[in-house]
Amino acid sequence: MHSKSPRNVVVVGGGIAGALLAKNLQDHAHVTLIDPKEYFEIIWASLRSMVDLSFAERSLVNYSDFLSQVKLINSYATHITESEVLTARGDHVPYDYLVIATGHIYSDPVTRTEGLSKYQEELNKIKSSSSIMIIGGGPSGVELAEGVYQTSGGETIVADQYFSCTGSQSGSSWLKDTILMDNLDMKGKLVVDKHLRVEGHRSIFAIGDITNLPELKQGYLAMRHAELTAKNLRLLLGGGSEEKMTVYKPGRPIAFVSLGKKDAVAEINGFTMSGCFPGLIKSGDLFVGKTRKTYGLNS
């Protein structure tokens, strides 16, 4: 007699990692995606979207456009047990395998239309402001500054508008009173093993920025997490041995910071370069076309 393979996969969080994993599994299991939004966003294009609405049009995509076989639950996950996920709207969603991809906390609109309107409002604010303050000098702050202004040598004290680019809170607070409470490190990240499973939980995986992996929190690495986890889940769903699961190797430090539409700064394995060459790699399209193809969309 053959045992029945687990077929219910629940993905919590529909960002870069969660949405790609759901796409790659939708032909292999009954996949449920839990996310309060109705759309997916190519998040690294968000700064360009604030000053160029054509990027917003391409980087905000309804889940239904590429997750045709996935059940969508537009709500927040509030609790998990060994067998189900509970949501804010009262759902009890059973799972055989659970993937947590809640990354960081953002105050995003619920619908794509509202998301596009938000970018239009931000653009209007930028255009109507004579001075803008950007708090935070990391990659996000630098890319936004390049998009909204030509800098001078003086300092700005008074600003009509300000934008905070100081990072966001880890999206793990909802796990603090669950079966995974002891799997959170001091920074609120989930401790995972070499297969991206939450340590001590054979049926629960974590991918994307919520993991404690010793690597930069970047979109292309979150996509690697999703692809590897989808591969391992396809193996398990098909009755394969855990011993054959693929091991994840943390990514090397690679970073590109766009300086407008033509230039960029890149750091690869400790080597830094700037100008039009790294700009050719990232700045023109910000990898939006390539990313859309990965998710099964027209570039």
UniProtKB/TrEMBL annotation:
The alphabetical list of record keywords is: FAD, Flavoprotein, Oxidoreductase
> What superkingdom does the record give?
Eukaryota
Kindly give the Pfam families that the UniProt entry links to this protein. Answer: Pyr_redox_2
Ranges for domain FAD/NAD(P)-binding come to 8-146, 150-216
Please tell me whether the keyword Flavoprotein is annotated for this protein.
yes
User: Gene Ontology terms, cellular component aspect?
Assistant: cytoplasm
Q: Do you know which Gene3D superfamilies this protein is assigned to?
A: 3.50.50.100
Q: Does the keyword Flavoprotein apply?
A: yes
Q: Which Gene Ontology MF annotations are present?
A: electron-transferring-flavoprotein dehydrogenase activity; flavin adenine dinucleotide binding
| Family designation | Belongs to the FAD-dependent oxidoreductase family.
Protein name listed in UniProt: FAD/NAD(P)-binding domain-containing protein
Query: Which species is this record about?
Result: Chenopodium quinoa (Quinoa)
